[in-house]
Amino acid sequence: MMAAYAAGEKGASRAARDGAVVVVVDAYRASTTIAVLVRKGARVVPVASIEEAATYPGADYRIGERGSAKVKGFDFGNSPTEIGEAAIPDGATVVLSSTNGTRIVEAARGAPAILAGAFVNAHAVADFLTSGASVPRVAVVGCGWEGHRASEDESASGAILDRLRDLGATLDDRAERIVKAHQKRPENSLRTNTAARRLKRLEYGHDLDVCLALNTVPVTPQLLDGAFVGVRYQ
Q: pTM, whole model, 2 decimals?
């Protein structure tokens, strides 16, 4: 397996055109929220626009966020802490629209498979990719923030890529650099970066503990028939 790192919508789109399996990494917070929902047994439908989320037929719950703030009238903001505490039943259909993550999912359409990865399920995603059917090419895509780099997404991508390398994957040069940067980056810097400060300002600072906890949600969300569903690892 050859594993690469890519960034943003252009990176996701290019990876899909090249035939790579795409892992969408939006650590603060869409990928983490998706993993938490999948562990609860929910089907998570990612949509790019608030309008589509608001009118999506058959939704049991709607999750919406813009600029990290909850969308008015939706059931939840994009908060994995709130979702984890909510009584969302197994089999529920949840529609999710976020500032960055769901746009990257849309850009990756056409890839052989699309997964959602974060710190919380880094090993589960890598283990899934290296077990069973052969996956020749993987692109781990850091979503970033409105077209800019995000250190939390690069570090979560690094955690996934590091595990892939341990399991026998070959990393390209950019992926190797992402892993090295992740290994050197102190967690405290992720708790004080721009995204973390924004979450704290909006009183979502409690989500940082959930988002930065490594391998605490051992599921692999995969997009099937328009919704993320998951494979559980014990």
A: 0.94
